[in-house]
UniProtKB/TrEMBL annotation:
GO MF assignments: ATP binding; glutathione synthase activity; metal ion binding
Keyword Aminoacyl-tRNA synthetase: no
Name by which UniProt lists this protein: Glutathione synthase
Membrane-spanning residues: none
Entry superkingdom: Bacteria
Gene Ontology cellular-component terms listed: cytoplasm
Keyword presence, Metal-binding: yes
Amino acid sequence: MRVLVVMDPIETVNLKKDSTMAMLWAASRRGHELGYALQHDLYIDQGKAFGLISPLQVFEDYNHYYELGEKRKESLADYDVVLMRKDPPFDMNFVYTTYILEQAEREGAWIINKPQSLRDCNEKLFATQFPELQVPTLVTSQQSLIREFIKTHGDVIVKP
């Protein structure tokens, strides 16, 4: 099976906790052929989804955990599965990447995680649809509301 992973720069991965590397190691152990691309390597040419893809070998050795081959132009539809593992930020580059992956999906590629779901189910806001399953939560950029929330709830976690 041919597996393409679209992810953050592989040299920045935290090997002790990165689930993408765990998946790649598992795929390698099973003999699957791996390809690697960054977001900006994906593009559409004449209505078809392509990427500048590097062949990837992975090793379960923290001192030498990957080797990349020379980039080559390939159709994303030539891969059996494309793993979309790019971490946020959710910006326009991320949105455009999901559109390119949707084109690959229309061409027959199996995309994990589904591009439309990545847009529709923002990781920060999706959980707010289930308030009965979470602690008190506020999503705002208004400092006065944040102060009021802290006053009401005491110890809180604030994320930018």
